[in-house]
Fold Recombinase family protein.
Amino acid sequence: MARVLGVIRLSRVSDETTSPERQRRSIQRWADQEGHVVVGWVEDIDVSGAVEPWKRPEFGKWLPSTIGKEVSAIEHRIAVEESRADEYDIICALKIDRLSRRVLHVHALLEWCEKNGKEVATVEDGINLNTQMGKLLLSLIASFAEGELEAIKARAKFSYNHLVKEGRWRGGRTPYGYREEKQETGDGWKLVPDDYGTDTAGTLREIVRRLIAGESANSIAQWLNEDVSKTPTSLDAQMIRNGKTPKGSRWTAANTAKVVRSRCILGQMEVSEEVMVDGEKTTRRRVVRGADGQPLQRAEPLITHEEWELANKKLDENTSKRNGNRKGGSPLLQVAFCTCGEPAYLAPGRNWPYYRCASRTTHKPCPTGSKGIAAHTLEDAVGGLHARHRGSEPRPVGPEGGPRGGPLLQ
């Protein structure tokens, strides 16, 4: 009598032909007929067949993460000990494609099982994987499963493009400033301005207004963080609309600028794609265009194109290399720290650069309320301490007319 691990996988919950209940019954019946006992179940629902078995949420708990990797014996032993690999003798699934739709993944799993005294069994394929012919048939079936995966991806891509061209919302992360609503015809969903409830459309327009008025992304992020329940981030707003408790994530200068730079707020659509630049692979954002070469309009714009261009111009100006902010980087990086313990970073100021607590642009506020200090003031003070330690005084250097002296940190 062997110990059986039953493996169940489903890409979509609505797929009735290979429902979890049917897979479980078939595996249990097979184990009973063979005189084995099922000691555990793996249920990965809404998980693609392209995902490696050892990386799946549930199956991964029973397999070492080093499968298919060139690692030392010690690393592999540690990975085995961290998994539940010693609790079963046979891995059983309804069909090969429930284990994986990738030939390489199936072979890597089978090779690991052979080296570790385990077997792989499938109920409906009827293959004896302990024979050479069985392994050959497994390769053929896995190849067909991989081909079907590519066909599924192609159909999904075609459906996605079709929905975009019709102005319908397919799903996924909702662009900031919008919400999903049922179409009046009842045929699918569409994106509409989120101008009630979480009112992210109103928040977005205020961000743009403040940028055009001359405020920096840093100061706008501070304003947004004054009460994140009224100005939630994109993720929190979506959680609130779905009836879930928000995480209370905070705004930073980076995600504030990212929202404004995206053409999504113009009702258009951007996708990420990998391209080769100077022989290296890199990821870039591309606007989806129609047959006429114009950007596809999938929703009502939240702001005008002129406002979008002006706001982005202001962002570019605020991140320019003026005042020598970026030349040579921050000389006191990981040397100067705020009183709260966070490192101090060099940031642009109205007249000259300042060292500011890193918490100003991260997810948490500074507990001591530390303010910034002029870069030349802090650098001169540190230089003076260093010179006195070496027995000589430095000659002060700094912006013409800049203030001297003052506390190092509040």
